[in-house]
Every structure is written in C-alpha cells, then in structure tokens.
Design goal:
Helix content: over 70%
Distance between the termini: 38 Å
Largest sheet: none
Radius of gyration: 20 Å
Order of helices and strands: HHHHHHHH
Number of domains: 1
Strand content: under 5%
Length: 230
C-alpha cells in the first residue's frame, strides 16, 4: 500500500513539474511576443532581420528556389483547407466528433488572430529582392508560420495520442514541416525573421489553449472520452 501511494505521489509530482515548466515556457513566449509587438508597433527596425535575410539569400539557387516554393505551398490556403477537410472526414469516420470540432475551432481562431494582428500592426513585407511568390497582405505576423504550427501541431498531438509508439516520428515530421514552412518564407523574401517568430509564438500560445482548456471540462481533445463517441 505504501509503495502504491509513493507511486501516486511520484506521478502527481511529475505531472505538477511538467505543468509548471509548461506554464513557465508559455510565460516566456508571451513576454517575448509582447516585446516584439511593442518594437513593431513603434516601427523600430531590426538589424538582425535584414542581416539574416541577406545571409540566407546568398545561398539561393534555381533548384533550391523550386524546393522552397514547394515547401511554402504546404502552408498555402488551398493545401491547408484540403488537409483540414481530409482530417475532419477521418475524425467523423472514427466517431471523434469533439476532435473534429476542436480542429475547426483551432484553425478558425488561428485565421482570426492572423488577420486581426496583420491589420493592427500593418507591417509592410520586406523588399530586399524580387519576391519569388506573390503576396499582397501585411507581413506581421506570418500567417504561414502561425497557421502551420496550429494545424500541423494540432494534428501531431492528436495522432501522437492515438499512436503513442510512433509519437517520436509524428512530432518529428510535424516539427520539420513547420520549421521548413517558416524558413521558406524568409528564403522567398516575403517575411522578416521576426514575422516568423511572432507567428510561431502566437501559434504556440493558441495551440496550448486549444489543447488544454477543454480538459477543464474533463474532455481530451484527442478523444478517449465518452462525449467523443456519441
């Protein structure tokens, strides 16, 4: 009995530590995002932005151009909507209605945040060389970075919960995809690095909310609750 109680105490302490670390990381991201937003709002120039973009641009090659254009397509609205629809059908087929609902909430919220923040900050896109893709909206934050992190991050979380043995591969592929999309936006010259960082920051915070707030009502986003199988 004592050994069992010790095991429970250890589990609770581990869970508490993980929650504390998660909260601490989110607060750091929020603080960094707040500073970044203030600098952009005050129209402060980031020397790092231009220096990093010019360093990346020196490696541009025709073949690499095509690869990066293909990579950035993974965050384009056409591909994103297709991925969402395919997964919504899959979730409904599996009887995971709540998971499907939260996918819609997560992606709709990400879209609203992206459009709203772009209009608020109205930061022009960089014009350091001719863009390899056509973009007409404002640059801060990066919608591709924000949207890809929320969509692919959400799907990675769900599938990692369903297939825990493959969770390493699932998170690895999702992370690589998200990072590649963000980097492609810099390579193509349509975003400053700080646009990408802001998009990732907003995306992480929103994704954490979408995954954890439902737990308050005893529902897991990835299923495992009777409410998911009604």
């Amino acid at each position: 009995m004592k050994q069992r109680n010790r095991g429970l105490l250890h589990s609770f302490s581990t869970l508490g530590l993980a929650s504390f670390l998660g909260l601490f990381v989110c607060l750091l991201i929020l603080a960094g995002l707040g500073w970044l937003c203030q600098e952009v709002w005050e129209r402060e120039a980031f020397s790092f932005d231009k220096a990093f973009m010019m360093w990346v641009h020196q490696w541009s090659r025709p073949l690499l151009d095509k690869f990066m254009i293909g990579a950035t397509r993974l965050g384009d609205p056409e591909i994103v909507v297709s991925v969402i629809l395919v997964n919504l059908v899959w979730f409904f087929v599996r009887g995971r209605r709540y998971t499907a609902l939260m996918l819609i909430v997560a992606c709709t919220g990400a879209l609203a945040l992206n459009v709203g923040l772009k209009l608020v900050f109205a930061r022009p896109r960089p014009v350091l060389w001719p863009h390899l893709v056509n973009e007409t909206s404002y640059g801060f934050p990066s919608g591709h970075a924000l949207g890809s992190l929320v969509l692919y991050g959400f799907l990675a979380y769900v599938f990692a919960c369903w297939y825990p043995r493959q969770s390493g591969w699932i998170y690895g592929i999702a992370t690589s995809t998200i990072v590649l999309i963000g980097f492609s936006r810099i390579y193509l010259g349509v975003h400053f690095p700080t646009d990408i960082l802001a998009g990732y920051s907003v995306g992480i915070l929103w994704l954490v909310l979408c995954i954890n707030i439902p737990k308050i009502s005893g529902v897991r986003v990835a299923g495992g609750n009777a409410r998911d199988n009604r």
